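Chapter review: from sequence to fold.
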Amino acid sequence: MRREWGPITGIVHGAGVLADKRIADLSPEQFQSVFSTKVEGLRALLDATRPDPLAFICLFSSIAARFGNPGQVSYSMANEVMNRVGYAEAASRGGATKVKSLNWGPWEGGMVTPALKRHFEAQGIPLLGLQEGAQMFVDELLHGAGEQVELVMGSLPPAQKRELRVRINQQSHPFLEDHRIQNMPVLPAVEAVELFLRAARAQGSRLKDLVCENLKVLKGVLLDGFYDAGNLLIVRPRSEGVYELVGADGSRHYEATINSEEQDSTASRVVARFLGTLREAPWSKAEIYGKLLFHGPNFQVIRNLVGISDKGITGTVTGTAERKWDDGNREADSAMLDGGLQLARLWGYHALGKPTLPTKIGCVRIHRPEDGTRPVQCRVAGEVSGKNKILCDIEFTSELGELLATMTGVEMHATAGA
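The C-alpha cell string follows.
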C-alpha cells in the first residue's frame, strides 16, 4: 500500500463482534473473542502505523462503554479500552493527530439484527439511519473540535429507573416498636414520606429541596416480620415523578408525587387564618398518651399543648435526633412531622369525638433543615368535612419563628379501633 499510495495518513477502526452473555454464563474464551476483536485489532493497527504521519485516528466505540448494557460486559469493556487508548494517543501525539473515539448508539443496520432492533424499539431507543450516521461521522472527523476525544453519538439510553429497597425490622428501626395499631407494628405515614424523598434523591435529583405531593394511603403496612427477618419495602417510579411503595409480594401501600424545586426562603405561612381564641386543652399528658393516642414512648413527641379551639390546635413537638430515630441519610424530620399528625388527631377528637388516621396528604414541604434537638412550635388549622373526616393544614416553626416545614391538605378519617 505504501509503495502504491504513499504513507498512511489515517485510521478508522470499526471492527466488532457481539456474543452477549451475562457474567455468570461467560467463559474466558467467549470473553476473549469479543474483547480481542476490538482491543487486539487496535493494537495491531497502531503498531503497523507507527512510522506513518497520521492526520487522524477515528475509533468506533459504543455507547455501551459509557452506560453499560446487560449481557455486554465484554463489549462494554472492549469499547472503554478504545476510549482510554484514544485519550492516550491524543496526549502522546501532541495535537499533530486528531483522535476521536465515537461512542455510537445503535444503527439501523450492521451489528443491529432484527431481534436487536425490536429490543431497542421496546426500550424507546431510536436507531440511527445509515445516511444520518455517515454524515455525523464525516462532520465530526472533518470539523469536530480536536480536543474532544470521546463523544456520545446518537440517542442516549433512557434513564434507568432505580428502586429503593429497605428491609425494616427491630434492629434497623427499633423506634417502630412504639407505633402499634391493634398490637402490630405499623409503618407511619411520615416514614412513607421519608422513603419517597429518599428514593427520589437516589434517582439523581440534584436540587436541594424535594416536595412530596398527593401522598395516598392505599393500604397500611403491617410489619408482621418486625421481630424476625423483617419486611422488605420497595419504592419504585410508577410514571414521571410518581412513586409507589410496595411490599415484597407487590401489594401497593402508598403512592406519592415527588417534585424538585428550589424553596423560597420568604415562603408565607400556610396556617395564616386565625385559630380563634385558644383555650386550655381538656386532657392531661397522661390522658393524651394513655387514652387518645396509641403511640408508645419513642413516638411521644408532643411536649406540651399550648391551646385548642374550634378552628385548630397548637403545641410543641420534639424532633428525630432527640427521639433517636436516626437510621442514616434522612431527608425529613419524621418525628417532628408525626407530631403534627398527632396534634391533628387530637383536634379530631375535639371536633368529631372520634379517633382519626391520615389517609391523604396534599403536600409536604421541607423549607429549612432542623437539627432535631430543639423544640418545634406546631400549629394545626382544621375544619370538619362530614361526620367522619377532618381537613388540616400544619406548619412547623423554630423557636425563632423560622418556617421549617408545612403539611397541607391533610385528610384524616375516623377509624374504628385505631
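Two observations follow directly from the output. The mean pLDDT is 87. The longest helix spans residues 28-48.
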